[in-house]
Amino acid sequence: MTPSKKHSAMYGHLTIPTIKIMQGLLDVYTHTGNQKAYGMVNQMAIYVQKRMARLDAQSIEKILYTVGANPGNEVGAMNEVMYNLYQVSHQPEHLALAKLFDRNWFFKPLAENQDILSGLHSNTHLVLVNGFAQRAAITGESNYLTAAKNFWNMLMQHHAYANASSSGPRPNVTSPTSLTAEHWGVPDHLSNTMTKEIAESCVSHNSQKLTGYLFCQDQQPAYAETYMNTFYNSVMALQNRNTGAVVYHLPLGSPREKKFLKDDDFRCCNGTSIEAFASLNKGIYYHNVSSLWTNLYIPSTLNWKEQKFALQQEGNFPTDSTVTFTIKSAKEKVLKLNFLIPSWSEETAVYINGQRESTDPSAGTYLALNRSWKAGDQIKLVFHYRFHLKAMPDDENVFAIFYSPTLLAAETDAEFILKGSKQEILKNLNCDGKDIFKLRNANNNFNLRPLYEISNQAYGIYATLRNY
After folding, report:
1. Biggest alpha carbon distance in the chain?
2. CB environment 412-432: b (16+ within 10 A), e (fewer)
3. Fold classified for 286-315+322-382
4. Beta partners for 339?
5. Model pTM greater than 0.85?
6. What residues form DSSP beta bridges with 114?
7. Which fold has domain 12-280?
8. Per-residue pLDDT tens for 171-188?
9. I want to staple 233 with a disulfide (CB 3.0 to 4.6 A). Which of 45, 140, 327, 407 is the partner?
10. pLDDT > 70? residue 128
11. Residue extent(s) of CATH 2.60.40 domains in the chain
């Protein structure tokens, strides 16, 4: 999103600020029962409805046909917030208004699995897909769920960087911003997009939201693992741990620096990053009637009131590979507990009440434990950490370095260039203490740290292999 551009006088001022205020008021009501907040969000919905009712179908299509660079009307998440409001109000006019923002020019190709993302402004359209996912959950329209899933697959498999972030330069540059930022490019062509303004914070946050929505519909390990990757290697890397300041973009080339926004800079990504950090406790646990899924390994206590089941999680993941769960329920309870086993952990040791299980769970799946649980029962997971590389889809010689879940950044103020083979690079990587890593390569010694630990120093993420 570009804060400096002028929006259409007809519609633009109804978009981003209005939507954020509406969602905030709705959250106040759903979490606290504040009737004044509920009345205000309903009045705002009436206002939007009246404004849209003054336009004929042709005008609405023109306004909401947002295929150009930095479109003058960023419709934002108006469909999503109206679906959320409908879930509470059950008023048909709220559902009808939400559907008005689901445009066929964008929806139908996605439902048919056509990748039309190249050239589109990323966050304008990503948040519309969040609305599609909510529509599917509310109305049961499977074609909207299909469109959301197809979009997610396109985004993550063909347009996303190693940390599941996306957005960058537009293939057809028609504005200053589109030269460097905020758009999607040609599928699988990412190695030439490494400007200083890629991976917009709003895009990372909203893609994580979409991943969470889809996991609720279909409990696939790929969704959970992508959520974890986004959490640690994108969202957690947006904020300065010393000052709380956040970035607009998260550059992944070399050498790069994080450009932290000032306190009085009210651009969209400042607010969105703060929203993201206010939601860090989301996505740890999910449940249905009789099963629980643990997708993030974060010290926490779960109180599942409906099942009268309590669980305490302890550990220091991802710095430490051991996580422990202790049942705190007063009464014995039969439940199925599912624990994510990420694809990077090829050997995961499982202990139940101190006894190691005879078979290790497969990587990229869930460990499913279905039994009667009583107070004091303990489950311990010990993940197998290893170094691994993620290459650009269009250039195997351009890659990012991970230590299991953690994306590593080389502390360097020069271009991150390596020599030798990938096998040699992996062999010469070492863990030199908690969150401290070393790489010996040719005549160079690199210090590496998790990207989320980087604040004000220059760094490099994607390395380039050159043997000439």
Report:
1. 69
2. beeebebeeeeeebeebbeee
3. Immunoglobulin-like (2.60.40)
4. 294, 367
5. yes
6. none
7. Glycosyltransferase (1.50.10)
8. 999 999 999 999 999 999
9. 407
10. yes
11. 286-315+322-382
